[in-house]
Structure formats: structure tokens, C-alpha cells
Fold Tetratricopeptide repeat protein.
Amino acid sequence: MSENNNQIKAFITSLLCIGLVACVAPQTLPNDTTSAPETTGAQPSPVEEVAEQEIEYGSFTEDQLYKAIISELGAQRGQLEGAGENYFDLAIETRDLTIIRRAVQFASINNDVNALLQLGLLWAEISPTDPQPHLMLSMQFLESGAFKQAISHMARVIDLGGNIDFASLSGRTGRMNPEDRASLIGNLQQLSKEFSEQQSIRVALVQLLAQNRQFEEALLELEGVQEDFTLEPNMVLLEAQIYQSIENNDQALRALKSGVRKFENDKTLRFGYARLLVQNEDFAAAQTQFRILVEQDPQDWDTLFSVALLDVQLENYDGAITAFERLISVDQRADDSRYNLGHVYELQGNLEKAIEHYRQVSIGTNNFLSAQQQATRQSIQLGQFEEAHAWLQGLSRGQPRLEVLFTTIESGLLIQAEHPQRAIELLNTSLNRFPNEADLLFARVMYYDSVSDRQGSETDLQQIILMQPEDARALNHLGYMLADQTTRFDEALELVERAIAISPEDPAIIDSLAWAQYKLGHFEDALENLRKAYSAFPDDEVASHLGEVLWAMGREDEARQVWLNALNTEPGSELIKEAMDRLQAAR
């Protein structure tokens, strides 16, 4: 080799070594090129192997060395795709393991699946006793859904003395059709016979049987796993999950309770136990488990948040306040905690404190709008009308959409609190600024409805429909109003049919359609639609309509049963009582 070539060799050696052990700007290349799950073996990664050995370049041409230099320099400038393509070509040309592993790194960071598969096969060919390429190939085939090929390479990893967790299969087979999964189960059953000492194969088999809803077979196989291998927390969790799948929560709880006694420090297991206790509404027992988790890890903020929520459920308000304040002090789940502090103080009747904490919820967070609504509700209850309005105005200043939204919220709360005059003054002021704002017009419809001004409601609804012919909300509201309060039944039906064409599955619109059909004497159609609406949304208004239609059809016993069922759910329903009294009095 020429002196010039020796200089190139020295330079490329240093450059490659730097590139293989340091980050590639501006993005870090992964050390684990296989994307494999954690394994229990002490097998070094390809990067670590290369970093520790001298690289031989005797078989490289000067052009190949130059191409490697350009690729490394390009990678340092962020040109990762180009570097990956160059290294892929070099790997095919040189068949050098160091270059192949470097090419794998780039293919991995570039998410080039085809390159990874080709490089993996080349690597396996050149180094037939190395389990690492088969590990990489198994993961790539798993990701692409080629499960049989994946299992083949998994088996090869074991043959070559490597380690692999077959349980990773179940994380990718959830959406398989049952026939394909059954075939995969057969493959695993065969593998479990060939490699009887491999626990993860047996566990994966249990998981796939459960996914295929073969729960008895899954439990039987799991029992065998627990007999043949040392019990581990993941086996306990799997057993509990299977019992939950067959709705045997008692057995699931027994399994988890026994598990947390055996594995006291296993966080995942105890958390699963606590969550199932919550699901079973055993809040006190769940709280005990969550508190143990917090004691084991005082900085597990999500668990501390769960403890606080359970304190609220158990009416241990002082404990909840302490926990929420702790979370706020360390800026963990802070806005969720502020919102829940507001709720706690509201439950305690301390409305001033509740308002204070609701208003501290940050704009843009999940609970922001709900928090402002609750703060406004409490302010209205305290008679602090001007203060509540000023606060909302301050939040929405310079944001017209937010101003409109807050106006609709505030006016609705004023109407609920029986302050209709304040509501209409607020709405009229806002409509002077935004005369064509449909949400404000609809909010004013709510005001007109509250004071029984049907003409006012109809006028605003007609204006909304004129501006927005596809507004299903306005079409439905006007259609129902005409069916319920006038004799303009044909017009009502036409409006509601327009609404149902826009939102065919909305139970409120289906109820309105049925009510218009009933008023026109189309009892069978009305009954069919009311049953559909009640199935989707079993509220007292739909129940009152359903009972009335049944009564009109002479099916009085069925009507009474519908009403009684509704009263069991909502004992104070005036709608149900009014319908029953009116129709029974008219007999």
C-alpha cells in the first residue's frame, strides 16, 4: 500500500473508531442495533465489540476507504440517510463485519427495514455461529408481522447459545386473525418440545392462547410453567389477566394477593393488585397497596396522585389535600392536583378556596375549561357575578373564540342558577360584538327556552340554520320544539330528518325523530326509533317518550315497566312522573 494509502488508513481508522463510540451529530446512533427486548445474557453489543478491537483495512480499496470517510463526515453533519446508503453499499462490497455492523447502525437510525433485513442475512452468512444477527432478524420479522420467520430466527438464537425473550411475541400478535394465531401457537408448541428448558417459550405460548380466547388451555399451560420453573412476578400477572378475561375477578385478586406477599418489592405486581382492587371498588384495600408503593418509592408521583384520588373517594380530605399540595410543590401532576384540590375544597363547602385552586389551573391543560366552569359556578353561587365575569374576560382578552366560549359557559351557569336577566344581558352584549356567532345565538336559545319564549327561540334557530344549513344541533332543536309545542308536525319532521341525515347515530336526534313520528301517528316507526335511542342513551326524557308511545299503542303494562325502570335510575325525574300522572288521569 502506498504512503498516501497508509495515511488514509490511519485517518479512517481514527474516524471510524470515533464514530463508533461517540454520538453522530445531530442525532445519536443507537448502541443496540437489533431493537431487541432485554435479554439475560452478557452478550456485548456490536458497537462494544468494534470499539475494543483493531480494525483491519488491508482488503479495502482506496475508493472504499474514501467512501467511508465521506460517509462519516456526512453523518457528523446530520446527513444520515446518505451515510446509511453508502455504508450499505460498502457492506455488500466488502462483506466486512465491522462495516456491516456500522451499516446496521445507520439502517436502524434511518428505520430502513429492507436494509436491516439484507444486512442481517449477510451478517448471519458471514458469521454463522453468531446469534446476534438472528436476534436482529427475529425482531425485524416480528415488526413486519412475519411471525413464522421471526420464530425461525428466534430458535436459531437459542441453538447458537444466545438468549431471547419469546414473550415479546404477544406484544405484536394482538391483531392477528385467530387462524394465523392458531398456526403460530402450533409452532410455539413444537418449539417448547425442542427447547423444554426455555421458560419464555412456554410463557409466550400461554399469552398467545389467552389472546386466542383459549383460556382453559392457557391456564393449564401456565400451571405447567409454574410447576416446571421458579415462580416469577410476570407469571402471577399473566394468571390474573387470564382470570380477568373470563370475568373471574375474585380468582384474579387471590392470585395477585398471593403474588404481592411473595414478591413484596415488585412494583408492577403490587400496582396491578391495587388497580384491580379499585376496579372492584375496594378502595380502602387499594389505598393500602398504593401507600406501600409510595413508601417503597417516595418519588413515584403518579402513585402518590392515585393515593390522593383514593383519599378523596374515602372522604379523607386532609390526606388528599396534603398529597395534592406535595405534588404541586414538586411540579408533578401540578395542574391535575390544582383541579382536584378545587374539587376537595368544594366538597368541604369551602367555595372560596375551591375557586382559588380552580383558577390556578393552567390554560391549555386538560382540565382548564372544566376548572373555569367550576370556578364560575361557585362564584355565581356566592353572588360574585362581576368578579366571575371579570376573571373570564381577563383570561379571554384578545382571544375572540375563547371569549365566545366563556360567554356561553357563563350564560348557561347563570340560567341554571336562575339568574336569566343577567344571562340575557351578557348574551346581548356579546352578540352586539359577534352578531353572526352561532354558538352565542344557540346560547340565547337556551335563555329563551328557560323563560318559555318559543318565538324568541325559533327566531334565533332560524337564523342559525340560515347561516349554517348543516347545523344538526339547530335543526334538531327547532324540529323537536315544533313537534312538542306546536301542531306543525310535518315541518318538525322535515327539520329532524335533515338533522338525522347529518348525525344518524345521535340518540337525541333519533328521539326527536321518533317524537315527530309519534305526533303524526306513525307509532310503529316512533317505537322502533325510541327503542334505538333508549338503548344508546337511557335517560329519563327518552324513557318518558317511550312509555307514552307504548301507552298510546295500548301496551300500558310495558309503558309502566319502562317508567318504573327509569325511576329506579332517576327517582326524582319530574318528566317520568308528569307522563305517568297525565296519561293515567286521562284513562
